[in-house]
Design a protein that fits this description.
single chain, 130 residues, alpha+beta, 5 helices, 56% helix
């Protein structure tokens, strides 16, 4: 008896669920379109006992000039000459490490295909390209 709902309550529940589904679908589609900083790896990557299938570089959007300068100083300290650092793999690995709080060794151990994706995303972000 207590489990029985009137027709209007059932209709309201359906309407609320439909709205929730529509909002969730909008969020999902928005995430796919807006998250160019989420790099899907070509295959699962094991590092320090964890397995990664993607790298989220969204924190690049919160970084500032001090981070760029730190990256430039880092590559200079390591004897790397890069007139356009945003196109340099080592620099992009450093910036990705800084954005994700993963060690730079994580990025230096990636398969070539994935390292190139990371370099492309970081470099394009810095140069303001979508």
């Amino acid at each position: 008896m207590g489990d029985t709902k009137s027709k209007s309550n059932v209709d309201e529940d359906i309407e609320v669920k439909d709205t929730a589904i529509a909002v969730q679908e909008e969020k999902i589609s928005g995430e796919v379109e807006d998250n160019d900083l989420l790099v899907h790896l070509s295959k699962p990557y094991k590092f320090d006992g964890d397995t990664y299938t993607e790298v989220n570089l969204a924190a690049l959007d919160t970084m500032n000039t001090n981070d760029m300068v730190a990256g430039e100083k880092w590559i200079q300290k390591h004897g790397i000459f890069a007139p356009a650092p945003e196109m340099n793999t080592e620099y992009c690995c450093y910036m990705a490490a800084r954005a994700t709080n993963l060690p730079i060794e994580f990025f230096k151990g990636l398969p070539l295909k994935d390292a190139a994706k990371i370099r492309g995303v970081v470099g394009n972000f810095i140069m303001g390209q979508d």
